[in-house]
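Why do we bother with holo predictions? Because pocket geometry can differ from the apo form. Keep that in mind while you read this record for pyridoxal-5'-phosphate.
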Amino acid sequence: MTRPAVARINLSALQHNLTRVQQSAPGSRVMAVIKANAYGHGLVPVARALAAADAFGVVCLEAAISLREAGFSQRIVLLEGLFDEGDLALIQGYQLDVVIHHISQLELLEQGQLAAPVDVWLKIDTGMNRLGFAPDQAAAVTERLERLPQLGSLRYLTHFACADERDNPATQVQLDRFGESCADLNGERSLANSAAVLAWPASHADWVRPGIMLYGASPLCGETAQDLGLQAVMTLATRLIAVNPHNKGDAVGYGADWICPEDMPVGVAAMGYGDGYPRHAPIGTPLLVNGKRAALIGRVSMDMVCVDLRTQPDAKVGDEVVLWGEQLPVDEVAQQAGTIAYELLCGVGSRVQFEYFS
Ligand SMILES: *Cc1c(COP(=O)(O)O)cnc(C)c1O
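The structure, written out:
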């Protein structure tokens, strides 16, 4: 028997969420961001479901190559660009688009001997202060790039720091800086992550770059995925592998953190931090037993969590436990655990079995 820890991936929900992107930014092309193994959902099956996207964004060359080898012909953009001169031949060979965010990458391009043209996205730092050229360098870097015999097309992008807050003025400041920095430059533009797709229409430009919303988690502070018309893609589920009656005063789990306040049934579900369930999920974090809410008790173990079954005295070994998914937003679990849905989704472990359905 295989362990029942499973991530069920709803490919129709992915397609629904892509449609939400297209409806929200009807004049823009879509670069579906599928970095980090498609936010933990599985690179190639997710890309297949999102085949209607105009481009894919990834971080690792290996991921880009897997996509090409799986037969995708869209643009595949390396969002952190190249890491050393050895990457150039592969970028060229597999016809990948490359982000250039730092002078060292520009130098690699200048020094590289390339037979075929490379399509470049020049990243401008408009206020995130992480990656990118300063706005006043955009023109000079463009000139250097245009001198390269191996330059194919040239596009411009920037990334927002605070687009998830609808009333944060920083996004408009970044929009304005981006507009000024490439006002006199030719080339398509891209600014919007998921939050900006939904909340900042002025940022849509030629290409939007949604990630998290494709997977059905909310990119906006204080707004649920349901409010935003998004459907959860991953349901992380397992089964009860034990149900034990405990007495008032019994301590459950490591550190004896939970003391039974009365005689009560305690369920044990086969999912722990070794599977990517957050160890910091506190007592009271919701989960679903047979579709009904129950509460986590005690500390999360590597392979297990314990469940308060007082609300479900009939629950038995083999019954289904959902950790997050369709009926239990991953955003809610993330908030309980002091993190974000991105981290939970990306962190689902390799020993969880992935099942795809549409
Ligand atoms: C990850 C990433 C995105 C997607 O961000 P979401 O918040 O998941 O929509 C967009 N652009 C770049 C450059 C990224 O690295």
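The chain has two domains: 11-215, 234-357.
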